[in-house]
């Protein structure tokens, strides 16, 4: 059987082909699955997608009409898939429920230290042989307060690094993570966390209840010299409200690996085009902001685990097994 994989990056392709080769043939495409590309999947029973795919009603209808029965998404998040429509159409949907939490946690800290110590600005200057230190002053992290919203596996890994820096630990989540509590984390309301944290990092999934978790009110509650990091999902932050606060001269630094309107932009080369997203265009102009293109997960270790789990999801589907990775089970046969 040949499987069709959308949105495969150049670095991923050899890993995908090697992992699938003992079991099935795989056709890797660098285009993302959306309404325009969905007809390519006609005749493929199994389709693999990336996090920036758009699996709305129309795309799912096209896939189902073309004979697709399994959608194997290569990510933990699944907010890009209309699960109710998939279930109604009898499609099985599986994801990667977990992979290396260290990849994202370490990258979140990379962003935090980069904006704190003005690394991008310093690097750009030295390329022009400008070795002045003006405007490059950062702050020691030791002794300062970090607020972690979401203390699951990634949040815990992030917290362990913060503990290593010698920071005061504040957390917010629906449940207390005993491992974080043992490190000395105090669980508080999100309002208290926003008000007290010198550095806020987001590690919660994007759900209806968490959309714009960091809204205008939360941003106003934060310290003027706070650092805000988002390596989870762009929709957690009201980006237009963030731009307003940045224009007012607030925040020591903002590091964003995700953006709420990133679909159709991230993972693509837009350098020769006019980007019509005015909010993003304004965001990247601020000297205290670093934006990266959803690469926090992108380590050899994490990507390998994602692909291995995707292969297992396909094998489980073919064998009629169901695992914790299945979001929508196959429709029962009559």
TrEMBL record:
<dbReference type="GO" id="GO:0008720">
    <property type="term" value="F:D-lactate dehydrogenase (NAD+) activity"/>
</dbReference>
<keyword id="KW-0520">NAD</keyword>
<dbReference type="InterPro" id="IPR006139">
    <property type="entry name" value="D-isomer_2_OHA_DH_cat_dom"/>
</dbReference>
<dbReference type="InterPro" id="IPR029752">
    <property type="entry name" value="D-isomer_DH_CS1"/>
</dbReference>
<feature type="domain" description="D-isomer specific 2-hydroxyacid dehydrogenase NAD-binding">
    <location>
        <begin position="111"/>
        <end position="296"/>
    </location>
</feature>
<feature type="domain" description="D-isomer specific 2-hydroxyacid dehydrogenase catalytic">
    <location>
        <begin position="8"/>
        <end position="327"/>
    </location>
</feature>
<dbReference type="InterPro" id="IPR036291">
    <property type="entry name" value="NAD(P)-bd_dom_sf"/>
</dbReference>
<dbReference type="GO" id="GO:0051287">
    <property type="term" value="F:NAD binding"/>
</dbReference>
<comment type="similarity">
    <text>Belongs to the D-isomer specific 2-hydroxyacid dehydrogenase family.</text>
</comment>
<dbReference type="Pfam" id="PF00389">
    <property type="entry name" value="2-Hacid_dh"/>
</dbReference>
<dbReference type="InterPro" id="IPR006140">
    <property type="entry name" value="D-isomer_DH_NAD-bd"/>
</dbReference>
<keyword id="KW-0560">Oxidoreductase</keyword>
<dbReference type="InterPro" id="IPR029753">
    <property type="entry name" value="D-isomer_DH_CS"/>
</dbReference>
<dbReference type="InterPro" id="IPR058205">
    <property type="entry name" value="D-LDH-like"/>
</dbReference>
<dbReference type="Pfam" id="PF02826">
    <property type="entry name" value="2-Hacid_dh_C"/>
</dbReference>
<protein>
    <submittedName>
        <fullName>Hydroxyacid dehydrogenase</fullName>
    </submittedName>
</protein>
């Amino acid at each position: 059987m040949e499987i069709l994989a959308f949105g495969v990056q150049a670095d991923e392709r050899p890993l995908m082909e090697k992992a699938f080769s003992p079991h099935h043939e795989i056709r890797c495409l660098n285009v993302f699955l959306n309404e325009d590309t969905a007809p390519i999947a006609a005749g493929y029973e199994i389709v693999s997608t990336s996090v920036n795919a758009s699996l709305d009603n129309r795309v799912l209808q096209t896939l189902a009409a073309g004979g697709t029965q399994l959608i194997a998404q290569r990510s933990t998040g699944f907010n890009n898939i209309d699960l109710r429509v998939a279930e109604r159409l009898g499609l099985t949907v599986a994801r990667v429920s977990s992979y290396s939490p260290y990849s994202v946690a370490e990258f979140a800290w990379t962003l935090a230290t980069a904006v704190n110590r003005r690394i991008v600005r310093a690097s750009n200057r030295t390329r022009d042989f400008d070795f002045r230190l003006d405007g490059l002053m950062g702050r020691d992290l030791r002794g300062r307060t970090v607020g972690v919203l979401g203390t699951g596996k990634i949040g815990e890994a992030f917290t362990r690094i913060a503990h290593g820096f010698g920071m005061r630990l504040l957390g917010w989540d629906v449940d207390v993570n005993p491992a974080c509590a043992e490190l000395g984390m105090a669980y508080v309301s999100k309002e208290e966390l926003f008000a007290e944290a010198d550095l806020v990092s987001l590690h919660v999934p994007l759900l209806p209840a968490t959309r714009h978790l960091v809204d205008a009110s939360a941003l106003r509650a934060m310290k003027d010299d706070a650092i805000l990091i988002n390596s989870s999902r762009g929709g957690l932050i009201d980006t237009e409200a963030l731009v307003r606060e940045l224009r007012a001269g607030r925040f020591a630094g903002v590091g964003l690996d995700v953006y709420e309107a990133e679909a159709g932009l991230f993972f693509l080369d837009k350098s020769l085009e006019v980007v019509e997203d005015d909010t993003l265009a304004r965001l990247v102009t601020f000297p205290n902001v670093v934006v990266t293109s959803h690469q926090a997960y992108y380590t050899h270790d994490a990507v390998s685990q994602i692909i291995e789990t995707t292969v297992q999801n396909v094998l489980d589907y073919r064998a009629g097994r169901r695992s914790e990775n299945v979001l929508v089970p196959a429709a029962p046969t009559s």
